[in-house]
Amino acid sequence: MTDLKGSAITWLGHAVVQITTAKGTEILVDPFIEHNPKYPKSYKLPKKLDLLLVTHGHGDHVGDAVTVAKQHGPHVVGMVELIGWLQSKGVENAAGMNIGGSYKFKDVTLSMVEARHSSGIDDGGRTIYGGVPIGFVIAIDGGPVLYHAGDTGVFLDMQLIRELYAPDLGFLPIGDYYTMGPKAAAIAAKHLALKTVVPIHYGTFPALTGTPEQLEEHLQGTGIQVLKAEPGKTLR
Ligand code: NI
Ligand code: MN
């Protein structure tokens, strides 16, 4: 697989990803813990998180953001309207960005990129505007360039993500129904010129039918590796 150069990544089921950089910066993406049937309940998050990244306003991505922010004290980064809503719920240390922007934090450069999806926030039965959904490119100093696509369909401007940031490893949704499925995810991986794909957002609920094996079939002969992660098992 892609050389992580001392960094570590852990898939925690659905779209939840934890990254520890070689220098010890702790990052968590899309906290969906309490109601996530695939979250490894025995897994211990680091006591102190440096960064909490949220891709959009759906409950299976921000469901536990307020709790995690309060318990683990991270700097929370997301789309400006979604961050505004999190601040209205008591999140204090937060930064609202927008598409095309980058943000340097310790040994990590975050870039906010496009995603094709929606981002309404369910707030006690009312839907609140959460801005548009996004993905993150996470470039680690001296380490790999990671891409978390959030929830998205495939889009041709993924070629611009490749041209601008050249990600090595991508966390791509493959479950279908709410996001792209395996065939589209394979096309995405080719446009992004990834070396490694870690499939996410599949198998959580019955509707998410795409499998890593189907993704592998669609990537046959391309040299792009599918890394089937186990929830809670750290890859280095
Ligand atoms: Ni979503
Ligand atoms: Mn989702």
Question: Which terms summarize this structure?
Answer:
single chain, 236 residues, alpha/beta, Metallo-beta-lactamase, Chain A, seven-stranded mixed β-sheet, 6 helices, globular, binds nickel (II) ion, binds manganese (II) ion
How is the main sheet built? 7 strands, mixed
* CATH H-level superfamily: Ribonuclease Z/Hydroxyacylglutathione hydrolase-like
Query: Which class of secondary structure composition applies to the elements?
Result: alpha/beta
Number of domains: 1
Strand percentage, roughly?
25-35%
Ligand names: nickel (II) ion, manganese (II) ion
Shape: globular
CATH class: Alpha Beta
Structural description of this entry:
The structure is a single chain. With 236 residues, the protein is an alpha/beta fold. It has one domain (8-235): 4-Layer Sandwich (Metallo-beta-lactamase, Chain A). The chain has helices at 59-62, 65-72, 80-88, 158-165, 182-192, 212-218, and strands spanning 8-11, 17-20, 26-29, 51-53, 75-79, 94-97, 102-105, 108-114, 121-123, 126-128, 134-140, 145-148, 169-173, 196-200, 225-226, 234-235. The strands form three sheets. It has a seven-stranded mixed β-sheet, with helices on one face. β12, α4 and β13 (169-173) form a beta-alpha-beta unit. α5 crosses α6 (212-218). It is globular and about 50 Å long. Nickel (II) ion binds at residues 56, 58, 61, 117, 151, 178. Manganese (II) ion binds at residues 58, 60-61, 151, 178, 201.
